[in-house]
Amino acid sequence: MYRIMNTIHAEIRIGITELRESPARILKRAEEEDQAIAILSHNKPAGYIVSPKMMEAMLDSIADRIAENKANSMTSSINTARKITLDAL
């Protein structure tokens, strides 16, 4: 079941009609101001536009979190590891 999200995660907010009227201007604004732009439909978030720089930063952050989670899961099993000698290999 999906939860309806009404929280708007951007300071810049525009209506979907404004996006339809001038998409190039909205894209340019997102890039120039390097901020997310919330696209609203009936005063609820319908989507977001982010600059390429912001998108890259978000993807880097996600990749870092995934790597950190993997490292944490691997280090948690270190205490249960068995010690073996090279000769045993």
The pLDDT mean sits at: 88
- CATH class categorisation: Alpha Beta
**Superfamily (CATH H level) name:** YefM-like domain
Number of strands: 3
Structural class: alpha+beta
Name the strands of the widest sheet in spatial order.
Answer: 1-2-3
Cα-to-Cα separation, first versus last residue: 50 Å
Q: DSSP helix count?
A: 3
Rounded to an integer, what's the Rg over CA atoms? 22 Å
Structural domains: how many: 1
Q: Name the overall outline.
A: elongated
Estimate the helix proportion, in percent: 40-55%
Proportion of strand residues: 15-25%
| Poorly predicted segments | none
The largest sheet, given as strand count, sense and whether it forms a barrel, is: 3 strands, mixed
CATH topology: YefM-like fold
CATH architecture: 3-Layer(aba) Sandwich
Q: What's the order of the H and E elements? A: EHHEEH
Structure write-up:
It is a single chain. This protein has 89 residues and is of the alpha+beta class. It has one domain: YefM-like domain (YefM-like fold, 3-Layer(aba) Sandwich). 47% of the residues lie in helices and 17% in strands. It contains 3 helices and 3 strands, in the order βααββα. Strands 1-2-3 form a 3-stranded mixed beta sheet. Strand 2 and strand 3 form a beta hairpin. The longest helix has 25 residues. The N and C termini lie far apart (50 Å). 4% of the residues are buried. The model has no long low-confidence stretch (mean pLDDT 88).
